[in-house]
Specification:
heterodimer; A: 270 residues; alpha/beta; 10 strands; B: 248 residues
């Protein structure tokens, strides 16, 4: 079995009789940016919360390598969670703590490093996300993009094996979204992390989606790479991918051109 | 309704189990406790003092009106003011006021952290979020509220003395005689024990409602209100139990 791989088997979850995830089996590979895409309400966030253990499963199992994560007790869960980093939709930085305190919290609680070592590590992580010199600011003093970058710095401070990102681009402009996407992809490559990203941003899919899982009405509808997605023969996926006016227009143009030069069009897209 | 009450009691006990499990790093918890003492304790000094001085003054005035019989020594006004402040006002009434001030603040702080996923973020880091967030608040309140109780007793009796001196309803010397009359040190111990128990109730019950808040800001507001109501009722019930147990 490959190392640092995450595998979900027959994941099922309901809330008050409403099935949100219905028998979803999926595998996320090491060193790749694995994307979960789907419309709002398709079960992406619940899926991610199941993967990290914030929501219990009704049925099925989740495996981190050969460890059955969904059957661990509290202490074992705590131990494996120190190998995870997560970027929440709103950043989820602690409001009452400064940027530095937010990033260094896991170091304070779980390591025996000296003050100087901790400070160096925090500075390194903040530098890695291009945020040097904001150590003493509070989250309320940061912009949306900065909050996301601090959240990334906090997520990587303990050198995690697994990185989870819940809609990291929500509320950001397209340029900042691109910056965040590239940063996550770079970090994934650099540290060989298994990264799972929830998104409905097609730019992210085309830019960093090495593996893409499409959820529809709580079921896994399609799975493939960003290269496959443009010509997947799946009506629900096509509706999702080409939902925006710009995508529809691009599709019209590219389909005309791709009849003549299919490879040139694909190269242009990726 | 009974079913829901029992479920909540069970969830409260489970939460307290998590709160009092072994801290990850004692030093970090100690630092947080000191910060909480500032927020929970120091921040309540002014309101406690203001309420106590007026309450002491009012108690003294009312006593003077009700003890106008010539056969009752006037010095009993000082005695009654002291006993009222020690036995009931500085512990129970101040606790009810702090349940409103501190309790709602704790419930809304933790509730907001819940709905903005800050608690999930802590859990994801492997932090015992209940212990990290709630334990310092409980420890800070249990240690600091008795000081507020003593402050309230001192300021309240001073208020009673001042109103007697200023209005002339009683000679200040008589008020002092009353203050010394039949003083039982156990009353102070009783008040301090009650205050510590009430401090635990306020912080733990409010944290419970905040920690289990779900949804949006309206839910946080509701959990904050529920926290104050539940803390106040629990304080009144425990006031009765502790009085029966410690004084009778």
């Amino acid at each position: 079995m490959a190392t640092d791989m995450i595998k979900g088997e027959h994941i099922t979850k309901s809330f008050e009789g409403r099935t949100v995830l219905d028998d979803v089996s999926v595998q996320f590979d090491k060193g790749k940016t694995n994307l979960i895409i789907g419309r709002s309400g398709s079960g992406k966030t619940v899926m991610m919360k199941c993967l990290v253990g914030l929501v219990g499963l009704d049925d099925g199992d989740i495996w981190y390598n050969d460890v059955c994560f969904s059957r661990l007790d509290f202490q074992q869960l705590k131990a494996i969670r120190q190998e995870m980093g997560m970027i929440f939709q709103g950043g989820a930085l602690l409001d009452s703590s400064t940027v530095e305190e937010n990033v260094r919290l896991p170091l304070d609680l779980f390591t025996d490093r000296t003050e100087a070592e901790k400070r160096d590590r925090v500075d390194f992580c903040l530098e890695r996300v291009a945020l040097s010199g904001v150590n003493h600011l509070y989250p309320s003093e940061l912009s949306g993009g900065m909050i996301k970058r601090v959240a990334i710095a906090r997520a990587i401070v303990m050198n995690p094996k697994y990185l989870f990102c819940d809609e990291p681009n929500s509320g950001l402009d397209p340029i900042t979204s691109g910056v965040i996407d590239r940063l996550i992809a770079e970090i994934t490559r650099e540290y060989k992390i298994t990264t799972v990203i929830n998104t409905h941003d097609m730019n992210s899919v085309l830019e960093i989606g090495q593996k893409v899982v499409f959820l529809h009405e709580g079921r896994k509808w399609w799975e493939g790479t960003r290269h496959d997605i443009m010509h997947a023969n799946n009506p629900e996926l096509e509706d999702f991918v080409f939902a925006s006016a710009m995508a529809k227009r691009t599709r019209k143009t590219t389909s005309r051109r791709s009849e003549k030069h299919p490879e040139a069009v694909m190269q242009q897209l990726f | 309704m009974i079913n829901r009450f029992l479920t909540d009691v069970g969830r409260y006990v489970l939460l307290m189990g998590k709160v009092f499990s072994r801290p990850e790093k004692r030093r970090i918890y100690l630092r947080r406790t000191i910060n909480e003492m500032e927020a929970v304790g120091l921040g309540s000094i002014v309101i406690t003092a203001i309420i106590s001085v007026f309450m002491g003054a009012v108690v003294a005035l009312q006593m003077s009106i009700n003890l106008e019989d010539g056969f009752i020594p006037r010095s009993l006004i000082g005695y009654a003011t002291r006993e009222t402040m020690i036995l009931e006002f500085s512990s129970t009434v101040v606790a009810l006021i702090l349940a409103g001030k501190v309790g709602s603040s704790i419930a809304s702080e933790i509730g907001t952290m819940r709905i903005t996923e800050q608690i999930d973020a802590l859990e994801l880091m492997g932090v015992n979020s209940a212990g990290y967030l709630i334990l310092p608040k409980i420890v800070a309140a249990v240690f600091f509220f008795p000081f507020l109780c003593i402050l309230s007793i001192l300021v309240g009796t001073t208020g009673g003395y001042a109103v007697c001196a200023l209005t002339g309803v009683l000679m200040p010397g008589d008020f002092i005689v009353g203050l010394h009359l039949d003083f039982k040190p156990w009353s102070i111990v009783y008040a301090l024990i009650k205050t510590s128990v009430f401090a635990f109730i306020i912080t733990s019950v409010s944290s419970f409602f905040g920690y289990h808040a779900r949804g949006n800001s309206l839910e946080v507001a509701r959990s904050s209100t529920q926290a104050v109501v539940a803390s106040s009722i629990t304080i009144l019930i425990f006031n009765l139990i502790l009085t029966q147990w410690l004084l009778i």
